[in-house]
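2 proteins. here.
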Amino acid sequence: MAERPSSQERLAAIHTQLVDAVENLVHSDAWATMLRVAARFPTYSPSNVLLIAAQRPDATRVGGIRMWNSLGRRVNKGEHGIAILAPCVYRRTEEAGESHTATNDGTPADDAPVGVRVPRGFRVVHVFDVTQTDGDPLPDAAPTLLEGEAPPGLWDHLAALVQDSGYDLERGPCPSGVNGYTDPCARQVRVRDDVTPAQGVKTLAHELAHIRAEHTSRFPQYARDARCRGQAEIEAESIAYIITTNAGMSTDSYSVPYVSVWAAGDPARIRNCVTQVVTIARRLLPDTDSNGASVRANSASGTIDLLHLSQSRFGPSA
C-alpha cells in the first residue's frame, strides 16, 4: 500500500501548483492579459503616482525595460523614460555593525533590527508607458470574482482565528476595486458584503494571512514601498490559495492572475516564499481529528471528506 503524503508535503504540493500556474502564465501569451493598470492594482507609491502623472498624465500602464522585454515588447528608440523614485534598502546581518545594501550603498542605523530590510534614501529609475513600446498586444484582464457557495464551516473557522488574533470582523462596503481590507491600527478586518460566499471566504483567508504572516511588522514600508507591498500580497494570496484549495475550492480564476500581477513577471518571488507560505497556511487549516485526519469540506457536494494527514505539527500559531 502506497504511503500517504504528509500534511506538509500535501500543502507544499498545492503551493507548487500555484507557482506552476503562475509560471505558465508568465511564459505564455496569456500573461499579456494579466498586466493591470495602476488604478486597479496600485503598486506604485503615492509619490510615484504623482511623478508619473506630472510627466505623462496620459500614462496607463508603466514598467521598466526588463518588464516590457519579458512581455515581448521593446521600448521605442528615442523615447524618454518617466523618472520615479526607488528606495535604497539594506538588510542588517547578525554581525554587529555589518549590513548589505540591496540597491545603493549606505550606512545602516545603529538600531536597525537584525534581518530587517530598512530603507535608506532613494534613487532615480525610469519607467515607460505602454504607448512608448511596441510588440505583443496587452489586453486588459482582471481576476474573476468567485461564484458559488463556500465549504461548510470554513467561514466560521477563519472568523474565529481572526478574533483570536485580536481583530474584529465585519461585513460591509469597501473602496472601489477592493474585496476586503485589514486595519492594524483599528484592529479590524472588513470583507465586502455583496460578494458570493465563495469569494467572501477566500477574501477572509487572504486578510487573515496578512495578520498571521505579521506583514505589519515584517513590511513596515508596505504603504510606501511597492516591492514590500507586492511581497505581502503574494504571500497573503498564496496562503489563501492553499487554505481554500485544501478545503475543496477552486480559486485559480482569481488567485493565479492576482499573484501573477504582484509577482511582476517573476515567478521566483512566489517560489522563494514557499516555506513561509506553507508553514503559516498549515497553522490556519481546520483542526485535525485524533487520528491526524483533516476535515475537508467538499464545495461541490456539500459532503465532508477525510484526508489522512501526517501526525507531524508545526509550532503554535504566531
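next one coming up
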Amino acid sequence: MRKFDTYLNQPQWKAKLFGIPLIIVGVGLLFINDDTFLKLGFSCILIGLYMIVMITERTVPALISNAQIKGHTDAVRQITQQLNLKGYALFLPKNGALTEERVFIPLKDSKLSLPPIDNEIVFATGNSGTSLGISLPPSGLSLLREVEKETLFTDTDMDHIEEKLQTFVGMDILKSVSLKQKDALWNLTIEKPSYCIHDDSLCRQYPCPSCSAVLTAISKGTNQKIHLENTVHNGKKTTFSFTTMR
C-alpha cells in the first residue's frame, strides 16, 4: 500500500491518472449527437493524450546525457588511477562537520579507519593512523536533490527505504530497484534504462550518477555510512553489496 502511495505522489503517475479518465470521457462524448459535445470530446482526448505522453517524455536526449556521464566518470577514473586508490567507496551522510553528503575513496580497504572529514577536505593524508584517500561529493548528489522535490529521504530506516527508492522508477531514472538483506550484507540491485559504464572497479569506487544517487539516498535516509563491498553486473542490472555503520 505504501509503495502504491509513493507512485501516486509522483507527477508522472498523477498525469496518467488524470489523462486516462479524460480520454474515456472524451470517447463517451463522441457518441452524443451534438457539435458541442463532439468538440468537447475531441478536446478531452487530446488533453488526456498530452498528459500521458508529453508530460512523461524525457526532455534530454539519451545521447547527450550519456556523453556527460562518460566524461565525468572518465575524469574520476584517471584521478583514482593516478593516486593508485584501491579501496571501495564509503558513502557518508551529513553530520556536524559536513553540510552535504560525501564519498570517501580510501587507498586500501584493509582496516579502514575513517579520517575526520568536513566540507573542505579533499585529500586525506592519513594522519594519526587514519586511512589515506580522497573525499568527493557523490556524482549523483544533484540528481538526488531533484528526486527529493518529489520524495524526501530523511528519517527512514532500512526496512522502509526501498519503498521511497521506487520514486527513481516513477521518474524514469531507473527501470527497477530492489534492496534485500543477506546475512551482514545488503544487496542493492538496480536496472537502468540509460548509459552504464559496466566498469566494476569504478562502480565500486565512484558509481555513476543514477547509482550514486540511490546509494546516497540510502545513506542520507538511514543516517548511516555505506561501505561498498562488491559490485556485480548482470546484463542491464547492477548489484551493489554493502555494509552499514553508524
